[in-house]
Specification:
Elements (H helix, E strand, L loop, with lengths): L2 H18 L8 E11 L2 E10 L3 H8 L4 E11 L6 E15 L4 E6 L4 E5 L2 H8 L1 E8 L10 E9 L6 H9 L10 E4 L3
Antiparallel strand pairs: 1-2, 2-7, 3-4, 3-8, 4-5, 5-6, 8-9
Helix pairs in contact: 1-4
């Protein structure tokens, strides 16, 4: 297929998705639980995030568009006036639909693990179940009881195909993100 024709096709699908998207029952991302363990100079993190897609985003996946979800972590120290971020980390997972097998594929960018699921709900549950991520603690010897972990999860709009990306910046159906939540680190 000619590249110009492909761009026009992607743009037409993006336009169709934005025009036909009905507002659903509250798509959202919510960080539900975070568990941390300190081992030496490493912070082990497990988290559970509830991921719910908008109708437009789910329809896009079913039509061959890959979605990337970023779960961001910031290790912060509590200061008298503000929190200071000392370490940042991110977990990147990608969801796509494999038409030949009629299955949803989840690719974990950190572990390079690939798993398949029969339903989008099962795939989203897996994407929201983050296991044993590691952040290096700063070598400065700060009091570990002052550490807090801030966590949020969001759809990476920049990873969408360019014609869809432009529309996604302006559509609330594509602004899928949790709020930052903070969790106390217990040494």
């Amino acid at each position: 297929m000619n590249p110009l024709r492909l761009k026009r096709c992607i743009f037409a699908v993006a336009l169709w998705l934005s025009v036909s998207a009905a507002s659903g029952a509250g798509p959202e991302f919510v960080v539900k639980d975070v568990d941390t363990t300190i081992s030496g100079r490493k912070l082990q993190i497990s988290a559970r995030v509830d991921l719910t897609l908008s109708e437009a985003a789910e329809r896009a996946v079913d039509n061959g568009v890959s979605l990337t979800v970023l779960t961001e972590f910031e290790l912060q120290t509590s200061g008298a006036l503000w929190n200071e971020t000392v370490v940042k980390g991110v977990n990147r997972t990608r969801l796509r639909y494999h038409a030949l097998s009629s299955q949803y594929v989840v690719e974990d960018g950190n572990s390079n693990r690939v798993e398949t699921y029969r339903t989008v709900a099962d795939a989203l549950r897996r994407m929201g179940s983050l296991r044993t991520l590691t952040l290096d603690l700063p070598p400065d010897g700060a009091d570990q009881s002052r550490y807090r972990l801030a966590v949020r999860s969001r759809l990476d709009i920049n990873a969408l195909p360019p014609p869809l990306r432009t529309m996604a910046f302006f559509s609330p159906d594509w602004r899928l993100a949790s709020n930052w939540t903070q969790w106390q680190i217990n040494p």
